[in-house]
Write a structure and sequence with these properties.
Largest sheet: 6 strands, mixed
Structural class: alpha+beta
Strand order of the largest sheet: 1-9-8-3-4-5
Helix content: 10-25%
Strand content: 25-35%
Number of strands: 9
Order of helices and strands: HEEEEEEEEE
CATH superfamily: Immunoglobulins
Amino acid sequence: MLPLPQMLSLRPLLKEVLIAELMLGFLLLANSCKCQSLVTNQPQLVTAMVGEDVVLPCHLEVAVNVDELVLEWGRLDLSPKFVNVWFEGSEYTDDLNMAYRGRTSLFTDRLRDGDVSLRLTGVRLSDNARFRCYYPKGNKEYFINLLVGK
């Protein structure tokens, strides 16, 4: 547990983050559409503390054939940029960024329904970044900003 002074110093930031998430959620609901794409291309903010596991949400609005699905999760500021790649029925582990090997996974039982969210385990301060969920078949990308606290 964090010392009280550190917890209190995070309180205003977490309040602002919560308000921003609620506003974004409202806007997403108000502007949802039934189109064959990712749910939105507005960046979403996700928060986590160091050491926690976190889910970075990403949903396709169409059901997909898991055996034909190609999906890339990455950070464009890294080289190599890939943190998780799903290629035609399985996770592709070559060319993944070393910092993410063994720390990312997809919910394989939900892919068929279009849920392509990423699970990131053991969050680190260095994970404080913008992540991209990319669906090459539809040339669609979705960004998630991960805010990491200590």
